[in-house]
Amino acid sequence: MINRRKSKEITIGNVKIGNNNPISVQSMCNTDTRNIEQTTRQIKELADAGCELIRLAVLNDDAAEAIKSLVKISPVPLIADIHFDYKLAIKCINNGISALRLNPGNIGKRENVEAVVKLAKQQMIPIRIGVNAGSLEKDLKELDIPLEEKMVKSALSHIKILEDMDFDLIKISLKSSDVLTTIRAYEKMAQVADYPLHIGVTEAGTLKSGLIKSSVGIGTLLAEGIGDTIRVSLTENPIEEVFAGYEILKSLKLRTRGVNFVSCPTCGRTQIDLINLAKKVEERFKNLNYPVTIATMGCVVNGPGEASHADFGIAGGRGEGLVFKKGEIVAKVPENELLDKLEEIVYSSLNNI
């Protein structure tokens, strides 16, 4: 059981964050926000995959205008990502956005910040202060202190701007492409502020390398009880970010959404194309939103026993395989019928619960 850091509760749309609420999985559309049809399609795909918060880039006035239509169709809260132009933030709030991601220090004069914060306070719109290691203020870059300390100083300076305006609907992120820097920055931030933390490793990379970096960084922080929302940043279809986010949370028993897939590594006893079989099992059941464990094992001798903890599973042999349930063999079928038989047994069992 992980003891989570106590944090202030805020609400984004209908999603409660912090204060021991479930850790939310977030992603970001990679579409042009001005393209309402394309962005709508991706929002729905992300929501269907389980994404609970979706961020949209708002680069100009047309994108801010599109927010009005997008919030009407979105089944999950939308967050506007804004830099430099405070008028875009105001327009997004007026058009129904659920939250903002911005840095008060980069949107100009104090009166500009005050205008945004005043409206956000009236409408109860949270603001995420997003600090990235690669875009720190010039005076902080020149300090002779560790990078993670510079990031925390940056976040605290932005927080002070909002707190001075009596605004506390704040969420914080401190991301670096370096895993250790990211971990240290969040650890330090967790000690000095009680606002909810959005965690992730920025610019983590493509699917393989990005998953490894994100799993180490996000997983370490979650295991320490740090983190209220997560995003697995990948150079990939954002649907993969959502899948990865839930897998990380499930591995630490912090969320139970969907299937927990397990499979054994191949070895000299394997007499079936286990790699492709495991991929097919994952693909076949990826949309099953039920907290069960499904195992794919390569050996009929040890398979059912080694995976006795699984709710369902298959174990392959030469030209045939076993289907098992809670460690008990329930069917023996030819190899080409394994997937269909497994599916039949899984769904018949779940329908009888």
Can you characterise this structure?
By secondary structure, the chain is α/β, with parallel strands linked by helices. It folds into two domains: about 240 residues, TIM Barrel (Alpha-Beta Barrel), CATH 3.20.20; about 90 residues, Sulfite Reductase Hemoprotein, domain 1 (2-Layer Sandwich), CATH 3.30.413. The chain has twelve helices and 15 strands. The strands form three sheets. An eight-stranded parallel β-sheet has the order 8-7-6-5-4-3-10-9. The protein has a five-stranded mixed β-sheet with strand order 11-12-13-14-15. A two-stranded antiparallel ribbon has the order 1-2. It is elongated and about 75 Å long.
Task: Write the topology of this structure.
Blueprint lengths: L9 E3 L2 E3 L6 E5 L7 H13 L4 E5 L3 H13 L4 E4 L4 H9 L4 E3 L8 H14 L3 E6 L5 H4 L5 H17 L6 E6 L3 H14 L5 E2 L7 H17 L5 E2 L7 H14 L8 E4 L10 H11 L8 E5 L5 H4 L5 E5 L3 E6 L2 E7 L3 H14 L2
Parallel strand pairs: 3-4, 3-10, 4-5, 5-6, 6-7, 7-8, 9-10, 11-12, 12-13
Antiparallel strand pairs: 1-2, 13-14, 14-15
Helix pairs in contact: 2-3, 3-4, 6-7, 7-8, 8-9
